[in-house]
């Protein structure tokens, strides 16, 4: 008799172990369905209970207050409640997706800005600052003692050949290399060692075109 009871006990234990290994921990089951009815707006979640491990087939509804209602799947109000829960879950999922998409767009925009900044920084380090060019020459003349330096602009990267003078006040004068005044001014500055042999890489200052100067042969104080 004792041997028989031991065998039954072992069989039951093995069956429970098999259920735990294959299906995981068993959830609570509705043993029966009820006629309890609530408004669908008070239902926050549900799950379908099949009649495999549980005794009946049912829809397990969860209310806002945490109560559980076991209802028949074919009830119309139960179907409406499930549809309401499904719509809310879809809406929350869509909102979460949109929020994630906005974050991704923001991160992408920040990344592109950083990449552009690094690119331009690299270009600046590789090529140096951009040279300012005289687009045309003028006949403006000033007293050569008011000039601080000059450099020769070649017609490679710039549109014209010119002598670019800078006055004591930082004003730029673009003159023709063949101008007698330009030659005189260069000779004056050469004597003082204030010259650059070729096109200089500079930060452009104001030019004579920005000032109300008349173009004539008399000397002007700039």
Uncertain parts: 19-26, 200-205, 209-222
- Rounded mean pLDDT is 78
Strands side by side in the biggest sheet: 6-5-4-7
Principal-axis shape equals rod-shaped
Structural class assignment: alpha+beta
What is the chain-wise order of helices and strands?
A: HEEEHEEEHE
Cα gyration radius (Å): 45 Å
Largest β-sheet summary: 4 strands, mixed
Number of helices: 3
Can you tell me the CATH architecture of the domain at 144-210?
Beta Barrel
CATH top level label of the domain at 144-210: Mainly Beta
**Could you tell me the strand content as a percent range?**
15-25%
CA distance, first residue to last residue: 125 Å
What helical percentage do the residues reach? 25-40%
CATH-derived topology of the domain at 144-210 = OB fold (Dihydrolipoamide Acetyltransferase, E2P)
């Amino acid at each position: 008799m004792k041997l028989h009871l031991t065998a039954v006990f072992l069989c039951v234990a093995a069956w429970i172990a098999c259920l735990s290994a294959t299906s995981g921990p068993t959830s609570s089951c509705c043993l029966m369905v009820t006629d309890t009815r609530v408004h669908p707006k008070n239902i926050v979640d549900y799950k379908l209970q099949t009649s495999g491990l549980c005794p009946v087939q049912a829809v397990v509804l969860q209310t806002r207050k945490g109560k559980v209602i076991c209802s028949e799947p074919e009830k119309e109000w139960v179907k409406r409640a499930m549809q309401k829960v499904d719509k809310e879950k879809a809406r929350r999922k869509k909102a979460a997706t949109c929020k994630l998409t906005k974050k991704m767009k923001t991160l992408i925009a920040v990344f592109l800005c950083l990449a552009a900044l690094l690119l331009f920084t690299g270009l600046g380090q590789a090529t140096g600052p951009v040279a300012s060019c005289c687009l045309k020459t003028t006949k403006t003349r000033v007293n050569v003692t008011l000039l601080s330096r000059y450099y020769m602009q070649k017609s490679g990267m710039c549109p014209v050949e010119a002598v670019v003078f800078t006055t004591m006040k930082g004003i730029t004068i673009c003159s023709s290399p063949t101008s007698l005044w330009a030659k005189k001014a260069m000779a004056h500055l050469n004597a003082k060692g204030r010259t650059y042999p070729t096109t200089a890489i500079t930060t452009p200052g104001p030019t004579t075109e920005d000032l109300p100067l008349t173009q004539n042969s008399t000397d002007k104080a700039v």
